[in-house]
Design brief:
Blueprint: H1 9-20, H2 24-37, E1 42-48, E2 54-59, H3 66-71, H4 99-105, E3 108-114, E4 119-125, E5 128-134, E6 140-146, H5 153-157, H6 162-179, E7 184-189, E8 192-196, H7 203-211, H8 213-217, E9 219-225, E10 229-236, E11 241-242, E12 248-252, E13 255-256, H9 260-270, E14 279-280, E15 282-288, E16 293-294, E17 305-306, H10 309-327, H11 353-363, H12 365-393, H13 404-409, H14 415-418, H15 463-467, E18 478-483, E19 487-491, E20 495-500, H16 501-519, E21 524-534, H17 537-541, H18 543-550, E22 558-559, E23 564-571, H19 579-591, H20 598-612, H21 623-634, E24 649-653, H22 654-660
Parallel strand pairs: 1-7, 12-15
Antiparallel strand pairs: 1-2, 2-6, 3-4, 3-6, 4-5, 7-8, 9-10, 10-15, 11-14, 12-13, 16-17, 18-19, 19-20, 20-24, 21-23, 22-23
Helix pairs in contact: 1-4, 2-6, 6-7, 7-12, 9-10, 16-20, 16-21
């Protein structure tokens, strides 16, 4: 008798459920993806006890007729693909035909659907269909799942607490709202609404709902493209960071994914602006040809494979870096509201109902304000595209001044609204030092001829082109005093500035040392005692690849025995660091197959040198020395953060001071 047997459909569905349905969040994700594929514009999700007791997804999509309502619970039954060629050109979120039969095999499931002509109710109990009959319901589909994993106690035992499971469901619904801002989402837990989006199509409004209004105000728009990819989204300024990388949200053709390499490209764009243990808040939607993307990697569809992943990484890194350079500014001190004791007076008269209605109407104005700001951003992007087309028609671009030319480009009704957001094209001009006064004026700067659209093609961007991107004008600060031998206090006509004297000097020295090493050949120093690195036979056999990696740093290794390498000569600047540890770290990273970039390694060591040569805390400076620190910082390419990502100075605006003093 044969030992190998064909498994029945119910058992295969339960096996597939182990991959597709790991927890309640996986059920919600699959059902919402089906609703989006059905062209729904409103999706409501109701859960009880974190989804372990009840889950319900209601949409207003196209619905199904009776035949499709029964067939959708058969294994590998789907309307998304028909031929082999369709598998390599997937334009929907679902395509495998495994989700519904897998969910139905481990739960009680009820389906109500109406396609406008036929209305059907289907009941399935742990993989066995109980009934399928006509039933009145609204246009769309409603799926109710209860008793999840009740017949698989091992899986039920490994579910975590109800708040944790609820947080996972909330997170995935918020990601859907970020990917589909034109769809209205609503999440209700135990009868209480925990999330709602309006479906207005504004990504900025969804960011404000999820992360708060203060963070949404610190978000800037991202847009970049090459021949194969288009990247759009929002990114928060470096002053807004988190302790987890979970706030970097990436979508490929509106599909939420998890990609370590894309997250790494985002971190590389932010590496000059935030500390190592902090992570940015970024939402990116990447559009690409579906033939370049393989989504058939895992049943849960969180992982994908790209055919030109390195090209995409470069585009993301270049686009985010350029955007940060255009919008970088010093972080402002956030005002923290302290609760004040409230003295309640007895109410002598009843409040008329009209006043309550007016209050509700005023509260709803906030959402309208976010929509208005999103419209302004869209109008600004259209003006930039128009300006780019005009710049191509002009044979000799005229230089722009800080005031007059910008005003002539903008319409009269939007001058005051957009002027503050436009980059200053004279920011890249050299700053002249006025010997008669410690302060400088904008008139001392020589305007630089720049085209109307300073953006460059991402595919041809280099470090030189990135340096030409204009940034905001550095504040013209006047020194006031020094605080505790650590911080320099300065002012201008708009705000008060607190400068970290050590971080400011770090930035100045870092750019000086980096420029010196980039422009000049380093002084080489022969080692009296050569450095011997312990490796392996596989590393020694690939010595040529290793030397190609280290060539930009003017380091050369030679074989020394079977498993060792030797270095006889190093640049002189490396004498200030632990050369043995540095080379061993490079060797270990390369041996483990991890990406090793020579510029990143060199940057880390140069940052260490700059730190050791900077002004320390608790050092008293004169007014002239403090002013010189500020003037040196103003000449830096990136004066807002030290090489380790910490801010060099913070801003307290006059408006904030007025609020604090309640004037």
């Amino acid at each position: 008798m044969a030992k190998i047997q064909q498994l029945d459909a119910h058992l295969t569905n339960m096996i597939a459920a182990g991959e597709v349905v790991e927890r309640p969040m996986g059920v919600i994700k699959e059902l919402v993806e089906n609703a989006l594929d059905a062209q729904a514009t409103r999706i409501e999700v109701n859960i009880n006890q974190g989804g372990t007791e009840l889950m319900e997804v209601i949409d207003n999509g196209i619905g199904m007729d009776r035949e499709d309502a029964c067939l959708c619970f058969e294994r590998h039954a789907t309307s998304k693909i028909k031929t082999t060629e369709d598998l390599w050109a997937i334009h929907t979120l679902g395509f495998r035909g495994e989700a519904l039969p897998s969910i139905a095999s481990v739960s009680n499931l009820t389906l109500l659907t109406n396609n406008g002509e036929d209305s059907t109710r289907v009941e399935i109990r742990y993989g066995q269909r109980q009934s399928a009959r006509p039933y009145p319901c609204n246009q769309g589909t409603q799926i109710t799942v209860s008793g999840l994993f009740q017949k698989t106690p091992a899986r039920l035992k490994h579910l975590k607490s109800i708040p944790y499971e609820t947080s996972l469901i909330l997170d995935v619904i918020q990601k859907f709202a970020l990917s589909y801002p034109q769809v209205a989402f609503r999440l209700v837990h135990d009868g209480k609404e925990v999330f709602r989006s309006a479906g207005s199509g504004s990504l900025l409004e969804v960011m404000a709902i999820i992360y708060g209004r203060d963070l949404a105000r610190q978000c800037i728009e991202v847009e970049g493209q090459d021949f194969d990819y288009t990247v759009r989204g929002l990114m928060a300024l470096p002053s807004q960071t988190r302790a987890s990388r979970n706030y970097m949200t990436v979508f490929i053709n509106r599909r939420m994914i998890r990609s370590y390499r894309i997250q790494k490209a985002i971190l590389e764009a932010y590496k000059n602006y935030i500390p190592q243990d902090r992570y940015p808040i970024v939402v990116l939607d990447i559009e690409m040809d579906s033939h370049l993307c393989d989504v058939n990697v895992h049943p849960s569809k969180w992982e994908i494979r790209l055919s030109k992943e390195q090209q995409l990484e470069f585009l993301i890194r270049d686009t985010l870096t350029r955007t940060l350079r255009e919008h970088m500014q010093a972080p402002e001190v956030m005002r923290i509201d302290t609760p004040r004791e409230k003295v309640e007076m007895p109410q002598l008269f009843e409040v008329p109902a009209e006043s309550v209605k007016d209050q509700v109407r005023e509260d709803s104005v906030e959402a309208k304000e976010w929509r208005r700001q999103a419209e302004v951003m869209n109008e600004q992007r259209q003006r930039e595209s128009i300006a780019a087309s005009l710049s191509r028609e002009i044979s000799q671009p005229q230089p722009l001044t800080a005031g007059k030319d910008k005003e002539e480009i903008l319409p009269e009704d939007l001058k005051g609204e957009v002027m503050a957001k436009l980059p200053d094209f004279s920011a890249g001009s050299p700053v002249k030092k006025n010997t008669a006064s410690v302060t400088e004026t904008l008139s001392d700067q020589e305007p630089v001829s720049e085209p109307l659209d300073p953006r460059v093609s991402q595919t041809e961007a280099t470090e030189e082109t990135l340096q030409t991107v204009p940034r905001k004008t550095f504040p013209q600060m006047q020194v006031l005093a020094q605080m505790h031998g650590k911080y320099i206090l300065a002012q201008d006509e708009h705000a008060l500035y607190i400068i970290d004297q050590h971080a400011a000097q770090e930035r100045v020295h870092f750019e000086e040392v980096q420029q010196r090493f980039l422009e000049q050949e380093p002084v080489m120093q022969d080692l009296l005692v050569p450095i011997i690195l312990e490796g392996s036979a596989s590393v020694a056999a690939r010595l040529q690849e290793m030397n190609e990696l280290l060539e930009p740093m003017h380091i050369h290794l030679e074989n020394f025995g079977q498993n060792s390498l030797i270095c006889r000569q190093l640049p002189a600047w490396m004498s200030e660091i632990d050369e043995q540890a540095f080379l061993q770290d490079v060797l270990d990273l390369w041996k483990d197959g991890r990406e090793v970039r020579a510029e990143d390694l060199q940057r880390h060591r140069l940052a260490t040198i700059a730190c050791h040569h900077s002004i320390r805390f608790n050092r008293v400076l004169s007014l002239g020395e403090m002013q010189e620190v500020i003037e040196q910082l103003a000449r830096c390419e990136q004066p807002y953060h030290c090489p380790h990502g910490r801010p060099t100075f913070i801003t307290i605006t006059e408006k904030q001071l007025i609020k604090e003093f309640q004037r």
